[in-house]
Specification:
Elements lengths: L1 E6 L3 H16 L3 E2 L8 E7 L3 H17 L6 E7 L2 H8 L4 E2 L8 H6 L9 H9 L3 H7 L9 E5 L1 E2 L10 H5 L3 E2 L2 H13 L4 E5 L17 H15 L4 E5 L8 H9 L6 E3 L7 H6 L6 H14 L4 E8 L6 H14 L3 E6 L17 H24 L5 E9 L5 E6 L4 E5 L9 E9 L4 E5 L2
Parallel strand pairs: 1-2, 1-3, 3-4, 4-5, 6-9, 9-10, 11-12, 12-13, 16-18
Antiparallel strand pairs: 7-8, 14-15, 14-17, 15-16, 17-18
Length: 443
Amino acid sequence: MKYFLAPLGCQMNKSDSERIASVLEEMGFLATESEEEADILGIVACSVRQKSINKVYSRIQKWNGWKKNKSLLTFLSGCILPADEVKFVEMFDLVFKINELPTLPQMITQYGVNTAFSREIMLAQEEKKDFDTLFWKIQPKYSSLFQAYIPIQNGCNKFCSFCAVPYTRGKEVSRPSHEILKEMERLVQEGYKTITLLGQNVNSYGLDRPSEEWNFAQLLEKIGQIGEKSGKEFWVYYTSPHPSDMKTDVLEMMAKYPCLARHVHLPIQSGDDDILKKMNRTYDMAIYRNIVQNIRKILPEATLFTDIIVGFSSETQEQFNNTLKAVEEFEYDMAYIAQYSPRPGAASYQWPDDVPFEEKKNRFHKLTECLKKITFQNNQKMIGKSYRCLVEGKDRKEGLLCARTQGLIPIHFPSLDLSLIGNFVDILIESTTAFAAAGKKLG
């Protein structure tokens, strides 16, 4: 019997899907990339964006249509708002919270599907152990042989007014540090080249258990020491930090250990203090500016990425202009820009969505054009320099491979040698565009 999984949304959902895959394969199912071949069809959903929820509706309507001709089992997990869950319960055979994954074998068996139970999971269910603890103990089926995710926490305590995550994943829970380090050591020994620490607010790691766990900077130090002892080359990333919790000790650890990648993803969301306050972001531009100045001082070679929302409730033209000014000031290497869409359950859902759709699109395009000018200028500085890069795969253009610098800038270079995929190479940059560069492999 075969299964098909469709992860939607962020890297956390992709990581969660790797653990779902592990459970399904332990039950005896085989993965397939073809929905039509599958006996079990699952979605790891994202309620943060309406666009992702629309994809769920589209897929389940198609799948339920197939049930007229074949026996299928459908399930849904991931980030699901209560308002969305009520609707999806009627459409999917199974809907469960991601930390309830250890009970999936039991749920599927109740539908009459013969499966092989994991003895550890069965015993844990009988002993009624904490689901979060059980979930993290599931070893994922990594979707790559050289890139991996390590979740270090679940949930969020920030309650940004536009965000649904606290309502879909609950309060922050830090994963035990010894489990994180054990998984890190194993991945390093197995030759993984990039490892990303995941959490809704990674730099608040350990704050829910201050007497039991390290803080985030201390965790990074332990990971840095693993890198030193291993003698292996690999890069560790983390996403996503919250500016309110971003301290210089984290940056100092990054500067101290070579395996901690010179890259910071620091979401700003808006460049206007009043909008930030309405978003409940708990920092203002002065605080954010100070963090960026510390990044430039302590990690001058680091690339800086961010997230921005345009067209938030009541955002004026002047307030949007302040965001434009912020992008120009901080000279981001990349920004992920979203047009605001209210989500049921989030505080801002009660407020008027009063920026017209066409105006949101206009602001999106203006900000994108501003960003393109800045990233092009940043990338132009790369020409004539060589960069250590990780080759990720074949490019869309024939005869080219695609790699990334430690700062996650995409690099294209000519090569037919597929054995380079998953390995580090040195590339001399010869030309650039707004969001990528091109060059030739050295050596």
